[in-house]
Design goal:
Blueprint: H1 3-13, E1 38-49, E2 52-63, E3 67-71, H2 78-85, E4 95-103, E5 106-107, H3 113-119, E6 120-123, H4 135-145, H5 151-164, H6 168-171, H7 184-196, E7 202-206, H8 214-227, E8 232-236, H9 240-246, E9 249-254, E10 257-263, H10 264-269, H11 274-280
Parallel strand pairs: 3-8, 3-9, 6-7, 7-8
Antiparallel strand pairs: 1-2, 1-4, 4-5, 9-10
Helix pairs in contact: 4-5, 4-7, 5-7, 7-8
Amino acid sequence: MNPVMEKLVPAMEAPVRRTEPEEKKEPPIASTPPPRELSITIDNFSAGYGHGNILKNVKLSVYDRQITAIIGPSGCGKSTLIRCINRMHETHPTATHEGRIELQGKDVFSMDPVLLRQQVGMVFQRPNPFPTMSIFQNVAAGLVLNGVRNKATLAGVVEASLRQAALWEEVKNNLHHSALDLSGGQQQRLCIARALAVNPKVLLLDEPCSALDPIATGRIEELLLEIKQSLTVVIVTHNMQQAARVSDYTAFMLMGELIEFEETDKIFTNPSDPRTHDYVTGRFG
């Protein structure tokens, strides 16, 4: 065999390496977040006083464990709407309503109003602690009304509610002092603690920071972000910066009608309705 063939034979006899084609990997399937659970459903709802309607055919879905802000100019029906959710609206002798509001699938107008208001607490524009009661008694009032008398149970719930309202450290040594000794911001947090003590499913707040200074307002906003982990929050506010800071969803109302309801980022950056755009950019309000 000539020298050239001697060099070629080993190379020809060497096993041929076969490269398997690479297995194509399918792109990962994006996981779809689970649908949010509805807490409150408002369907074709109108309400007013006497022969006139303030709310006109409102349709709105409020999601569980989210903060929903309701914004709009004065007189547009924001406060009336949330007062209808826990049936405080009907305490006025000429109040009227038609349509449906459901709390977790149950018609609120078929529920006992007292039991409904235990599940749907409310905090008003100005702090309204019970003036003749101590701090402790204010928080325990709803429990006592429901027949709870055990002192240890009351003490435990009062402490837990005050802690949840970020007020415990400030008042723990003065629980039997008058609630009126507290500052405005502390009184508002006390009212929130009082609402939380009965373990509601929903907390409604009607302009809760309008009478408070910026520091107290900041504490209330931090509190709302904390408590939304365990319940649904609906806040009426004129302060659009506040709505943008704390809410997950925003509803814009005008002259008794719901104009737009979307995730808050969309409402403030890319609203669908020109009236919403004009309002959030300050062209009217």
